[in-house]
Design a protein that fits this description.
Blueprint: H1 14-18, H2 32-38, H3 52-66, H4 78-85, H5 89-101, E1 105-108, E2 112-115, H6 124-129, E3 136-138, H7 147-164, H8 176-188, E4 198-201, H9 204-215, E5 221-226, H10 230-238, E6 242-249, E7 252-253, H11 255-265, E8 269-272, H12 286-298, E9 302-306, E10 334-339, E11 351-354, H13 357-371, H14 376-387, H15 389-414, E12 428-432, H16 438-446, E13 450-454, E14 468-472, H17 477-491, H18 499-504
Parallel strand pairs: 3-13, 5-6, 5-8, 8-9, 9-10
Antiparallel strand pairs: 1-2, 4-11, 6-7, 10-11, 12-14, 13-14
Pfam families: Aminotran_1_2 (PF00155), GntR (PF00392)
Region (Disordered): 1-29
Biased composition (Polar residues): 1-11
Length: 510
């Protein structure tokens, strides 16, 4: 075998070397039941008059684009998938043919069919994080950090950076002083916490990924809210876990349904956002928090409480830490995750996880196999910012209140037919459009220089929440006003195709 530095011979076709998508699939094959759990109802009323094979191909394509099905993953055999879905084999064969024709799948005799992306296409997750300067971005609910705050923090830590420069720089648990600072904040908020209960991570999403990777195995059930945070859903799905959704309505959580689901499904883990829920903005009442802790304890379900948005309390006092609602000794199964992304800056990749010291040690061991340790510089910057957290968060809350008012005023003026409930905190509105046109509207709004996030991205089941949009109020008021004007123009653009037809018949399947 030639080494990696060998120059390719003139007679070797370049495509055979350069196009990895032509190779056999990699990783664990996707089972038919796993795929079925991700798919919408292909035969019910929501499917309309569209042929089942087109609906199946469209749904798989959407899962690939969203990253919910990884690339180069082997799809189930046609006969197996047909049996699981209750469709004819001819229907599944036609769907796979359409995926291959459109560039979303490849096949090889003996290797089956696997997922790919057509040339020039990207995951929607990459598009959401790439910000062209010409567009107003309402797809990410994050704010910026004042430049003087960041430069002051950098100046303050300069001597500490010099001290750390002569060390290996690996701190799998996180810098001891940062762990102590995070623990102290929990204690001051009403939950006694020791530094050995804290693991510093590269954002809250890594904390969730570590918990899922340590505590769950492929095929395990995970209870999730519906709707919920998109990146958390992606993390859970990529771990090959089966989501068990429980609804979060405009009125909040139904604890009877949650408790019944815990009894019947007995999920391995539950992922919940009790504080200013993303995307609905709901705040879970204290009584329900205690009930949820007891119910998950009875079902032996690990409970991950995402408190990333906890500090952004606009109209109410900041809630106490979720685990503080447990009876004495009843919170060992509760894992709390948080970060500085929403309260400070998304570019500062500092998150944390609070759990028992034993679990923290086990998770730190898993973390070493992933990225060794977090950035020392980021952790040092976090220290002075945490010391000023009360001051900085208070300013962020005032800003959020003003920007929320600006967004609401613009919507009332330009799109009065839409409706929403004013969230008591958080960074976005969960808007009801009155009709299932969110995906098509998002595509059309992009042509007007505005990027918005359709509600289906937050659904635990594909095809849901097409009548919703998540609209963040993290940009300046004037920018939000301009964005709403552009979205209104896109909504009323009668020169284009009706939005409803754009939803029912995507352009790539026309």
């Amino acid at each position: 075998m030639a080494d990696m530095g060998t120059v390719q011979s003139a007679g070797t076709p370049p495509a055979a070397v350069q196009d990895p998508s032509t190779n056999a699939p990699s990783g664990v094959p996707l089972g038919s039941r796993q795929l079925a759990a991700l798919l919408p109802d292909l035969t019910g009323p929501a499917a309309g008059d569209r042929p089942a094979y087109r609906g199946l191909a469209q749904a798989i394509r959407a899962l690939v684009l969203d990253g919910r099905i990884s690339l180069r993953v082997k799809l189930p055999a046609e006969r197996e998938l047909a049996t699981t879905l209750g469709l004819s084999r001819a229907t599944v064969t036609a769907a796979y043919d359409l995926l291959r024709e459109s560039g979303y799948a490849r096949s090889r005799r003996g290797s089956g069919t696997w997922t790919v992306l057509p040339e020039g296409h990207r995951h929607t997750g990459l598009d959401r994080l790439s910000r062209p300067e010409s567009a107003i971005d309402l797809s990410n609910a994050v704010g910026g950090l004042p430049a003087d705050v960041l430069t002051d923090a950098l100046a303050e830590i300069a001597p500490l950076m010099a001290q750390h420069a002569n060390t290996p720089g690996y701190h799998p648990y996180g810098l001891p002083e940062l762990r102590a600072a995070v623990a102290d904040r929990y204690t001051r908020r009403g939950l006694r916490t020791r530094p050995d209960q804290i693991l510093i991570t590269s954002g809250a999403l890594q904390a969730l990924g570590l918990a899922v990777g340590m505590l769950c195995g492929p095929g395990d059930r995970v209870l999730v809210e519906n709707p919920t945070y998109t990146n958390a859903l992606d993390s859970i799905r990529r771990a090959r876990l089966r989501t068990v959704p429980v609804a979060v309505s405009d009125d909040g959580w139904d604890m009877e349904i949650i408790e019944a689901t815990l009894r019947q499904a007995v999920p391995r883990l539950a992922y919940m956002i009790p504080d200013f829920h993303n995307p609905t903005g709901n705040l879970m009442p204290p009584g329900q928090r205690a009930e949820l802790i007891r119910a998950t304890q009875r079902s032996s379900t690990w409970l991950v409480a995402d408190e990333t948005i906890t500090d952004l309390a606009i109209d109410v006092p900041p809630p106490a830490p979720f685990a503080s609602h447990a009876a004495r000794g009843g919170a060992d199964h509760v894992i709390t995750i948080g970060s500085m992304s929403k309260s400070h800056w998304g570019g500062l990749r500092i998150g944390w996880l609070r759990a028992t010291p034993r679990l923290v040690t086990e998770l730190a061991g898993l973390r070493v196999s992933m990225d060794m340790a977090g950035s020392v510089i980021d952790q040092l910057v976090a220290l002075p910012l945490l010391r000023r957290m009360d001051e900085l968060v208070a300013a962020r809350v005032v800003e959020a209140r003003e920007r929320r008012a600006a967004l609401v005023a613009a919507l009332v003026r330009d799109i009065p037919e839409w409706s929403w409930r004013l969230p008591p905190g958080g960074l976005s509105l969960w808007v009801d459009l009155g009709e299932p046109v969110a995906t098509a509207l998002a595509e059309r709004a992009a042509g007007y220089g505005v990027r918005i996030e359709g509600g289906s991205r937050f659904g635990a089941e594909p095809g849901t929440f097409e009548h919703r949009l998540r609209l963040p109020f993290t940009l300046p008021g004037g920018t939000l006003d301009e964005a709403v004007q552009r979205v209104a123009l896109a909504l009323n653009d009668t020169a284009g195709r009706p939005l409803a037809s754009a939803v029912s018949r995507p352009h790539w399947m026309a």
